[in-house]
Amino acid sequence: MKRAAILSAVLALASACALPPPRPAAPSPSNDVRGMYFEKKTYNPTPLPRFEETKSLLPSPIADEHPLWVETYWKAWELAFKNFHEPTRGSGFVSQFIDAAFNENIFLWDSCFMTMFCNYGHPFVPGIATLDNFYAKQYVDGEIGREINRTTGVEYTPWINFEKKPLFSRWGWGLSDENADKSVLYLGRRAPRPDPRLTLDALDHPIFAWAELEHFRLSGDRLRLAAVWEPLVRYYRALQKYLRQGNGLYITDWAGMDNSPRNSYLNRGGTGIDISAEMVLFARDLSEIARLIGKYGDALSFRREADDLSLLINRLMWDGERKFYYDLTVDGVRAPVKTVAAFWTMLAGVASKEQARALAVELKNPATFGRRDPVPTCAADEPGYDARGGYWKGAVWAPTNTMVIRGLERYGFDDLAREIALRHLDIVAEVYKRTGTIWENYAPDAAEPGRHVTGELVKGDFVGWSGIGPILYLMEYGIGLKADASSNTLEWRLNQHGRSGCDNYRFNNQSASLLARVQSDGTAAITVVSGGDFNLRIIHQGRSQTFKVKKGRNEFGLGLR
Asked: Peptide bond preceding 67: is omega within 30 degrees of 0, i.e. cis?
């Protein structure tokens, strides 16, 4: 994910994964057309939004029982606005974008997750269009680099395969041997040709399609799905070509989880449960996008690919005795380390109902993942666990928590999903109250910012993916509003007493202001002032009731059970 994590690991563990001196950026060959599958080619200069001028247009949450949640929400937006950028001349970027301000580069992983809370500010803030700049940099063979200089538009140079070799990892797998072979060993298949444009370090976490569907859930924008279809399919096929091991699963390296105790087991071509499940998720999401844009044959084909890979994961990576999913070494031996990577199988729909129940039990287990702030990236009973965080040795990250939460919802564990979201939101708010800011990640065993393996605090003022907690979690789990633009339905789980709701809530290209007043006897009065018609499904005290909201002012009542 982040180079600072590796640098921390270098300092703490004397790892030999140190960065070689960067080479100057090599100019692309004249015949190497970039972004040819994405229709947007140029940037139309537009003033960047300013927080003071845009605040009144953003969703304004109401949560009388939790004023600190609301305060933290607005702080997250204030920080996010400092991270909006315009493309610089000559960069080749085509859209305004949000950047985590981690360093001088934009990151694929960060950008996808940042779109998920920016969706709530769409179309007033740069959000989903951030991904345009990655599609605009796509190679002819479909590869997309995960880290690109924010100003020049050039890939982070160590991730470029200057040597024109078969797939290799520039930094390896976290081994201490300075001379360790960092090339990928394919077993059961030939090394793919031609050689990739990028290194293994650059080909990680294919979650563009998931981010696009998260955006569609609120926007209902089928035209965007049609525009990104070919870039996504080309990217998927490139990863199939270069990352698929001979056993049919997928290869990863340190870049999946920088300093995780699992990394050494992935040496030279071990297959990761996360990247393998993410490829299932990618195929399922492509199937759904195909359905939404009328490509029904493609929808069936990608669903079959997802199902086939799911069977393989369950046969090779599920341990029936330990009831958990594990990475595999290059020789096919299950690695012994329990990490958050296993829960990608729920989001991807890999796990059976029984397997999903076992994973949910593990999420509630205080000895492993059910810590004060769930979900740590490394199980607490692993030898490498760091109660202060230690980056990927135990820290709690908004991206992985969001993956876990969405996966739980896929299998109907809505109460556990909401519990995890609100426990994390409470800690983010508590730490904000004490420190005045939002952090890159959090400690699993205390209401504290996370720490690097060196003991230093992680990055503050980080919005960044950490905006997911104060914005997305507040909207969907604190206030309880969750939109489905494709059915023009807004679901509202009334979770609080007193007043709750949201002004300027936008979905499906319309805006509504919603207010609920829940009395101590359980009765509730709902007022909705809407710019359009939609279905409002209220869930309260175990009952569900759907109302037809019409343009203008609407009032509904919920009685006693």
From this structure: no
